[in-house]
Specification:
Blueprint (H helix, E strand, L loop, with lengths): L4 E3 L4 E3 L16 E3 L4 E3 L2 E3 L3 E4 L2 E4 L1 H8 L2 E4 L3 E4 L19 H18 L6 E2 L1 H12 L7 H11 L4 E10 L6 H10 L2 H7 L6 E9 L2 E10 L8
Protein backbone atom coordinates (compact mmCIF):
# COMPACT_ATOMS: atom_id res chain seq x y z
CA UNK A 1 0.00 0.00 0.00
CA UNK A 2 1.27 3.50 -0.83
CA UNK A 3 -0.41 4.93 2.23
CA UNK A 4 1.28 4.46 5.57
CA UNK A 5 0.73 5.17 9.25
CA UNK A 6 3.54 6.32 11.53
CA UNK A 7 3.17 6.29 15.27
CA UNK A 8 5.87 8.14 17.18
CA UNK A 9 6.47 5.45 19.76
CA UNK A 10 8.59 2.41 20.42
CA UNK A 11 5.89 0.08 19.08
CA UNK A 12 2.29 -0.27 17.94
CA UNK A 13 -0.38 -2.86 18.60
CA UNK A 14 -3.57 -2.65 16.56
CA UNK A 15 -6.61 -4.15 18.18
CA UNK A 16 -9.49 -3.53 20.48
CA UNK A 17 -8.82 -1.44 23.52
CA UNK A 18 -11.10 -3.04 26.06
CA UNK A 19 -10.89 -6.55 27.44
CA UNK A 20 -13.93 -8.73 28.15
CA UNK A 21 -15.47 -6.56 30.84
CA UNK A 22 -13.77 -5.57 34.06
CA UNK A 23 -12.79 -7.45 37.18
CA UNK A 24 -9.84 -9.79 37.22
CA UNK A 25 -9.34 -9.57 33.43
CA UNK A 26 -8.43 -5.90 33.77
CA UNK A 27 -6.56 -6.15 37.08
CA UNK A 28 -3.19 -4.41 36.98
CA UNK A 29 -3.83 -2.92 33.54
CA UNK A 30 -3.62 0.85 33.27
CA UNK A 31 -4.75 2.57 30.08
CA UNK A 32 -4.30 6.27 29.52
CA UNK A 33 -4.78 8.48 26.45
CA UNK A 34 -1.68 8.41 24.29
CA UNK A 35 0.30 11.64 24.16
CA UNK A 36 2.17 10.71 21.01
CA UNK A 37 1.26 12.22 17.59
CA UNK A 38 -0.03 10.03 14.78
CA UNK A 39 0.80 10.70 11.15
CA UNK A 40 -0.80 9.42 7.91
CA UNK A 41 1.33 10.00 4.81
CA UNK A 42 3.33 12.59 6.72
CA UNK A 43 0.27 14.53 7.86
CA UNK A 44 -0.64 14.55 11.52
CA UNK A 45 -4.17 13.31 12.20
CA UNK A 46 -6.42 13.11 15.20
CA UNK A 47 -7.03 9.51 16.20
CA UNK A 48 -8.16 8.07 19.51
CA UNK A 49 -5.29 6.06 20.98
CA UNK A 50 -4.41 4.67 24.39
CA UNK A 51 -1.09 3.77 25.91
CA UNK A 52 -0.90 0.50 27.82
CA UNK A 53 2.45 -0.64 29.22
CA UNK A 54 4.27 1.62 26.75
CA UNK A 55 2.37 0.35 23.69
CA UNK A 56 -0.16 2.35 21.68
CA UNK A 57 -3.57 0.83 20.98
CA UNK A 58 -5.88 2.26 18.31
CA UNK A 59 -9.10 1.00 16.79
CA UNK A 60 -8.65 -0.94 13.58
CA UNK A 61 -11.66 0.78 12.04
CA UNK A 62 -10.06 4.18 12.76
CA UNK A 63 -6.98 3.10 10.84
CA UNK A 64 -9.13 1.85 7.98
CA UNK A 65 -10.97 5.16 7.83
CA UNK A 66 -7.76 7.20 7.94
CA UNK A 67 -5.85 5.12 5.39
CA UNK A 68 -8.73 4.15 3.13
CA UNK A 69 -9.56 0.45 3.43
CA UNK A 70 -12.74 -1.12 4.71
CA UNK A 71 -13.07 -2.71 8.15
CA UNK A 72 -16.36 -4.28 9.19
CA UNK A 73 -17.94 -7.02 11.27
CA UNK A 74 -19.42 -10.09 9.60
CA UNK A 75 -19.08 -13.20 11.74
CA UNK A 76 -15.77 -11.73 12.84
CA UNK A 77 -13.62 -8.71 12.03
CA UNK A 78 -12.99 -8.42 8.29
CA UNK A 79 -10.49 -6.22 6.47
CA UNK A 80 -10.95 -5.49 2.76
CA UNK A 81 -7.89 -3.64 1.50
CA UNK A 82 -9.37 -3.29 -2.01
CA UNK A 83 -12.44 -1.34 -0.92
CA UNK A 84 -12.80 2.16 0.56
CA UNK A 85 -13.84 2.50 4.17
CA UNK A 86 -17.54 2.29 4.97
CA UNK A 87 -17.52 0.42 8.26
CA UNK A 88 -20.28 -1.85 7.01
CA UNK A 89 -20.35 -5.22 5.29
CA UNK A 90 -20.86 -5.12 1.51
CA UNK A 91 -24.24 -6.16 0.19
CA UNK A 92 -24.29 -9.79 -0.82
CA UNK A 93 -25.53 -10.54 -4.31
CA UNK A 94 -28.18 -13.23 -4.32
CA UNK A 95 -28.79 -15.50 -7.23
CA UNK A 96 -32.41 -16.33 -7.86
CA UNK A 97 -33.11 -19.30 -10.09
CA UNK A 98 -35.84 -18.86 -12.69
CA UNK A 99 -39.12 -20.60 -11.98
CA UNK A 100 -40.45 -23.40 -14.15
CA UNK A 101 -43.11 -21.02 -15.49
CA UNK A 102 -40.49 -18.43 -16.43
CA UNK A 103 -38.42 -21.04 -18.26
CA UNK A 104 -41.46 -22.23 -20.19
CA UNK A 105 -42.43 -18.69 -21.13
CA UNK A 106 -38.91 -18.12 -22.43
CA UNK A 107 -39.14 -21.32 -24.46
CA UNK A 108 -42.36 -20.10 -26.11
CA UNK A 109 -40.67 -16.79 -26.90
CA UNK A 110 -37.74 -18.57 -28.56
CA UNK A 111 -40.07 -20.86 -30.52
CA UNK A 112 -41.90 -17.82 -31.92
CA UNK A 113 -38.56 -16.20 -32.71
CA UNK A 114 -37.62 -19.21 -34.86
CA UNK A 115 -41.04 -19.14 -36.54
CA UNK A 116 -40.61 -15.46 -37.37
CA UNK A 117 -37.21 -16.17 -38.93
CA UNK A 118 -38.92 -18.72 -41.18
CA UNK A 119 -41.86 -16.51 -42.09
CA UNK A 120 -44.41 -18.31 -39.89
CA UNK A 121 -46.92 -16.52 -37.67
CA UNK A 122 -46.39 -16.44 -33.93
CA UNK A 123 -48.14 -19.09 -31.85
CA UNK A 124 -50.53 -18.23 -29.05
CA UNK A 125 -50.04 -20.02 -25.76
CA UNK A 126 -52.86 -22.47 -25.04
CA UNK A 127 -53.23 -23.42 -21.38
CA UNK A 128 -54.56 -26.86 -22.33
CA UNK A 129 -51.44 -27.60 -24.35
CA UNK A 130 -49.22 -26.13 -21.62
CA UNK A 131 -50.80 -28.49 -19.09
CA UNK A 132 -50.49 -31.49 -21.40
CA UNK A 133 -46.87 -30.77 -22.31
CA UNK A 134 -45.90 -30.33 -18.67
CA UNK A 135 -47.70 -33.54 -17.74
CA UNK A 136 -45.79 -35.47 -20.40
CA UNK A 137 -42.46 -33.95 -19.40
CA UNK A 138 -42.96 -35.16 -15.81
CA UNK A 139 -43.09 -38.72 -17.20
CA UNK A 140 -39.43 -38.19 -18.18
CA UNK A 141 -39.78 -40.04 -21.46
CA UNK A 142 -36.60 -40.31 -23.50
CA UNK A 143 -38.50 -41.13 -26.69
CA UNK A 144 -41.97 -40.35 -28.01
CA UNK A 145 -44.95 -42.21 -26.51
CA UNK A 146 -47.64 -41.30 -29.01
CA UNK A 147 -50.61 -42.73 -27.14
CA UNK A 148 -49.59 -41.17 -23.81
CA UNK A 149 -49.07 -37.81 -25.51
CA UNK A 150 -52.42 -37.95 -27.32
CA UNK A 151 -54.26 -38.97 -24.17
CA UNK A 152 -52.62 -36.16 -22.20
CA UNK A 153 -53.69 -33.60 -24.79
CA UNK A 154 -57.23 -35.01 -24.91
CA UNK A 155 -57.47 -35.02 -21.11
CA UNK A 156 -56.36 -31.38 -21.01
CA UNK A 157 -59.39 -30.40 -23.10
CA UNK A 158 -57.67 -29.49 -26.36
CA UNK A 159 -60.06 -30.70 -29.12
CA UNK A 160 -57.80 -30.91 -32.18
CA UNK A 161 -54.76 -32.75 -33.42
CA UNK A 162 -51.28 -31.48 -32.68
CA UNK A 163 -47.58 -31.76 -33.42
CA UNK A 164 -45.11 -32.91 -30.78
CA UNK A 165 -41.39 -32.35 -30.15
CA UNK A 166 -39.31 -33.91 -27.38
CA UNK A 167 -35.70 -33.35 -26.37
CA UNK A 168 -33.66 -34.63 -23.43
CA UNK A 169 -30.23 -33.30 -22.49
CA UNK A 170 -27.82 -32.71 -19.61
CA UNK A 171 -28.39 -29.43 -17.79
CA UNK A 172 -25.42 -27.08 -17.51
CA UNK A 173 -27.48 -24.07 -16.39
CA UNK A 174 -31.19 -23.71 -15.64
CA UNK A 175 -31.29 -20.42 -17.52
CA UNK A 176 -29.98 -22.12 -20.67
CA UNK A 177 -32.65 -24.86 -20.81
CA UNK A 178 -35.08 -23.03 -23.16
CA UNK A 179 -32.26 -21.99 -25.48
CA UNK A 180 -30.79 -25.50 -25.59
CA UNK A 181 -34.16 -27.19 -26.20
CA UNK A 182 -35.17 -24.87 -29.03
CA UNK A 183 -31.69 -25.12 -30.59
CA UNK A 184 -31.94 -28.93 -30.54
CA UNK A 185 -35.27 -28.77 -32.37
CA UNK A 186 -34.04 -26.13 -34.79
CA UNK A 187 -31.06 -28.29 -35.75
CA UNK A 188 -33.24 -31.32 -36.50
CA UNK A 189 -35.14 -31.08 -39.82
CA UNK A 190 -38.17 -33.05 -38.61
CA UNK A 191 -38.45 -31.15 -35.33
CA UNK A 192 -37.94 -27.81 -37.10
CA UNK A 193 -40.75 -28.62 -39.55
CA UNK A 194 -43.09 -29.25 -36.62
CA UNK A 195 -42.00 -26.07 -34.84
CA UNK A 196 -42.56 -23.79 -37.85
CA UNK A 197 -45.64 -25.54 -39.30
CA UNK A 198 -47.73 -22.64 -40.72
CA UNK A 199 -50.98 -24.55 -40.08
CA UNK A 200 -50.44 -24.48 -36.32
CA UNK A 201 -51.77 -21.60 -34.24
CA UNK A 202 -51.21 -22.50 -30.57
CA UNK A 203 -48.41 -23.89 -28.44
CA UNK A 204 -47.73 -25.48 -25.07
CA UNK A 205 -44.41 -26.48 -23.54
CA UNK A 206 -43.27 -28.48 -20.54
CA UNK A 207 -39.96 -28.73 -18.69
CA UNK A 208 -38.96 -31.20 -15.99
CA UNK A 209 -35.46 -31.34 -14.50
CA UNK A 210 -34.35 -34.51 -12.72
CA UNK A 211 -30.93 -35.94 -11.88
CA UNK A 212 -29.17 -33.29 -13.94
CA UNK A 213 -31.24 -33.85 -17.07
CA UNK A 214 -33.95 -31.71 -18.68
CA UNK A 215 -36.99 -33.33 -20.30
CA UNK A 216 -38.61 -30.80 -22.63
CA UNK A 217 -41.83 -31.10 -24.62
CA UNK A 218 -43.46 -28.86 -27.21
CA UNK A 219 -47.02 -29.36 -28.42
CA UNK A 220 -48.31 -27.21 -31.30
CA UNK A 221 -52.05 -27.17 -31.87
CA UNK A 222 -53.31 -27.76 -35.40
CA UNK A 223 -56.99 -26.92 -36.01
CA UNK A 224 -58.78 -29.06 -38.60
CA UNK A 225 -56.87 -32.18 -37.61
CA UNK A 226 -57.99 -35.05 -35.39
CA UNK A 227 -56.61 -36.55 -32.19
CA UNK A 228 -57.12 -40.32 -32.56
CA UNK A 229 -57.61 -40.75 -28.81
CA UNK A 230 -60.31 -38.12 -28.31
Amino acid sequence: MKKEIMLMTTGIFVGTLLCHGGGAAAAGTVAEPSWQPIFVNGVQVQMEAYNIHGNNFVKLRDIGQAVGFNVYWQDGVRVDSASPYTGTAPLQETSVSPTNQELREEMVRLINQVRKEHGAAALVTAQALMDAAQDCSTQMFTSHHNRAECEAVAASGYPHGFGSNLTVFTVTSLEKIPEKAVANWENSPGHLATMIDPDCDTVGVGITVSNGKAFCYMFVGKPGTHNPYV
